[in-house]
Structure formats: C-alpha cells, structure tokens
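Methods: example folding runs. The two proteins below were folded one after another, and each record is reproduced exactly as written to the output file, sequence line first and structure-token line second.
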Amino acid sequence: MPGTPIETTTETLLETDWVGLYVVPWGTRILLALAILVVGRWAVRRITRLTERALERVEVDPMLVRFLGNLIYFALLVVVVLAALEQLGVNTTSALAVFGAAGLAVGLALQKSLSNFAAGAMLIFFRPFKAGDFVEVAGISGVVEEVRVFNTVLRTHDNREIIVPNGQIYEDKIVNYSARDTRRIDLVFGIGYDDDLKQAKALIEEILATDERILEDPKPTVAVVELGESSVDIAVRPWVKSKDFGAVRSDLLERVKAAFDTHGITIPYPTREVHLRTDGGNGQAA
C-alpha cells in the first residue's frame, strides 16, 4: 500500500529525533551538571581549607578563621550551584532574580536568623572576646569555643557545650574574664572582737607572701573594712594571673581558715537566741 512506507518512515524519524534531540543532549547536560556539583563541592572544600591554613599561618585569630571559612564555603557553593544550573540550560539571570525574591521572602520570615548573622559579624569585627576566653554572655558563663555564622559555642567548667544565638550575646552585656592578664581576688574574713587583730592580719600577710602565684606588683591589700555586728571584717585583695584566679582563691580560703584554727582565732557566724515562754494560769512565765 502506498501509505505504509511513509508511515513507517515517519515513526522511524520521530524515534530518531527523540533520541538525538532530547535523550542524548539532556543526558549529557545532566551528567555534566552532576560532575560540576561533585567536583565543585570538592574544590570549594579544598579552597576553604587552604584559605583557613593561610590565615592561620599569618596568625589570624582562630575564631575569625572559622567564621571567614564558613562564609567562603557557602559563597563558593552558591557559585557552583549556579554553574550547574546554567549547564542544564537554566537562565542564571532569571534564577538570580528568583533567588533574590525568594531570599527576600525568606529574610522577612527569618529576621531573627539574619539578626544573629549580623551580630556574629559584629562580634568578629569588634572582637570583645576570642577563642579560649572565659566569658559571661547572655547570663551564661563558659569558655569560648567558636563563633559561628548564627551562634556562638561555649564550653562550661563541667564540660557541657552550650550554643548561644549571636543576637542574644550582642544585645546583652559581655563580661570577659580573660581580657586582662591579671585579676584581683576580693575576699573578706571576719574575726571576733576578742581576737588579736594584728595577729590575724600578720597570718594573712604571711600566707600571701609564701604563695608564688600572688603578684608583688600591685601589692596585696590587707585592711579592716568594717566593724560588723558580730565580727571585725578584714578585706584581702591580692593580684594574680587570670589563669590562676580560681585555684589561688580556693587555696587562700582554705589556708586562712586553717591558720586561724591553729592560732585560736575565731570566725564568727550568725547566731540566734530563742527564748521559749509558757504562760501559766496566773500569766507568769514558767
């Protein structure tokens, strides 16, 4: 029949066009896009690590190194994704416009996260603390481990990891106990009014003089600060290296208490006298 060869030829052409025009080109594009993603991600990680090592070699603060490393990683990753989309034939200009509009919508929905990001940048720029500092931020005390893009990681004395949003840190007061090389220990010891004041001061001064961790300059202060209701209060204010603060403070408390006990100096504590009264039938106390 005259129509049969023509129909067969048309079907063959359609099958040939489908494979040649769609399957092969799109298969190649998809494979190239996947290759760009895989190789690009590897390259991004490599570049980020090299950048971090270069910053560490010039002795940039470790906290800043990690923060910049995160920014570089995500920025380059966006470039890799756009390159893969372009390989698939997506108009990157239109994609950027769509991403921009989506980013605006997401930004409005995630204002808190953006404020945390901005606060993180401010913490890195002004550097109120660095990695390894012992700080009190947002009512939490701990050692700074890392400042991330949206939050800061603290490690407590009992080895707990606490993650604090950067916005809370920047909006609240920041107390950096490691900002200075030295710190002053403030202690107050109370002795009884019947005890020898000069002897008590001499014992404290001797303890301070025999502790090598206590600095000679500034000179420690030992002075009476108050005549209390039941005690004579002696203020003890030595200066130490910041790293020795906790250990020296504990040792002073223990050594002064032991010295007072040995020499019979009392440390008064609050007492209360309780009088019990029972009324008899005649109204007199029994």
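Second run, written to the same file directly after the first:
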Amino acid sequence: MIKYYTIPKVWFSVLLYFAIIELIIIFTKPSLFLDWNFVSTRIIFILIFIFSMVIKSKISNIFFQLLQNILVFALMTLLYKETATLNTLIFPKIDEFLSNLDQNIFNFQPSIEFSKTYNSLFFSELFYFGYFCYYLLPLVVFGILYKFLPQKIEEFGFVLISSFLFYYFIFILIPAEGPQFYFTFPDNHIEAKGIFGNAIKLIQKNGEAPTAAFPSSHVGISWIVIFWLYQNFRKSVKYSLPFVILLMFSTVYIKAHYFVDVVAGFLTAPIIFFLTFKFYKFLNQKLDVHLN
C-alpha cells in the first residue's frame, strides 16, 4: 500500500487539478466522462504514476526526481489540449475584447503588423528561435540542477508543473484562442522561413489548439523560471533573461498572443510563483510530520 506521504509532491498538485476539472465537468458537461480523449489522458497519468512508484526504490532519489518531473512535464501538453474543450463550458471567448484592447492601445494590431514589418529571414528565425526557447528553458534548468544543485530538482519541478496547471485553470475560466485562430487568413498566417520557423510550425500542427491565449503562459512560465533561478541559482539569470525577453516579443510576432496577453502573463507570473511555492512549502511541512 502506498502511503500518501511517500508520494512525490508534484502528484498532489496534479491530483488537485484533476479534482477541480472533474467538478467542472460534473456541473457543465458530464458526457465528457465518456469521451475517450479525456479517459485516455487520465489513464496515461495513472500509468506514469504507477511507473514512478515502481521504479522509485530501484534508482537514486536524485535521478528519480529528475525522471518523474520530466515525465509529468511532458504530459502537460495533454492537459493543455483539454483546455480547448473545457474553456467553452463556462464563459464565451473574449478574443474580440482582447483584440480591441490592442487596437485601442496601438491604433493597429501588433500581432498582425509586427511580422509584416519585420519579415526578413533574419527576424523570422530570431523570433521563432525566441519562441522555441520556451520549450528548452525548463529542460535546460533541469539539466543544470542535476549537475550543480540536485537537491532542488523536486522543488523546481513542483513549482514549474503547478504553475502550468494554474494557468490551465485560468484558461478554462478566461477563454481566448489567440490571433492565429481568431483572425482570418491572411492576417492569422505567418510564413516559416528557416529551421526554427519550420520546427515551431511542426509543433503547432501537432500540439496547438484554439485556447490558452490570455494570459500568456509562455511569458508567465518563463518569468516564473527566472524568479525561481533568482532565488536558487542566481548566476544563471543573466544568461536566461535575454531569451525570456526575446520570447515575450516572439509570442506576438508569431501570432500566438495579443500584446495584452503578454502583459497579463508578466503580471500574473509573480503571483502564481508565490502561490505555487507556498503550496510546496505547505506540503513539505505536512509530509515531514509523518516522515519524522
């Protein structure tokens, strides 16, 4: 029998998220419980959890923490896709409001005009690379921690994954699909001109969905990583910060987000970082009582 205080902390966050989502489904669209996409996602999470608990005693604790956090991090894409269905269950999408805000601020649409103005191969690859950094940054941090600060892998993984789940919940409550889905062709289209452009297009083709525009989790998660690094591995911040700043511009350039999404992502990042870190400390205190 698995005792709850032996379960890796990140799974408490996952369990809480699932509990909230199931409650939303019960009161809005119970038929989703029979939808194979939803059922299969939960089966995959259960299998990964069982796998984690089986191998826990067979490998070192440090490698276990690294492996299970990367596995759960990889599964976030499944929960992201779910929000495309869930974000229409409670409130209507607010893209018209967000695009109007951008229009009122600039007297034009940044997500349309940015890529039109800077449409050379150099700028295309620069900003697509900036967007690509979003996928690389957490993995790079995991690698750095494994080598230099292994005792912090659990904490970083918990904050990172809990932050994703927090943003996914927000996306369900504040539905927006973003310029690439809201605008019509050719305003929602941008040509990929190089290696990183085509790589992002491939990722979007297989993993993108009309959801998760407001606030920008790309911006929010990246800043949360910066905040965590500032507290725990400060010398790496100066190397990471330029890529995060580039990412902020990139999200608008490739039409993933409105300008106001980027601002909201930046403003929500410290709040979500504080809440997820406090939740981690709370779990530490509660579980330590039983372990000691």
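Comment on the second run: The chain is about 75% helix and 0% strand.
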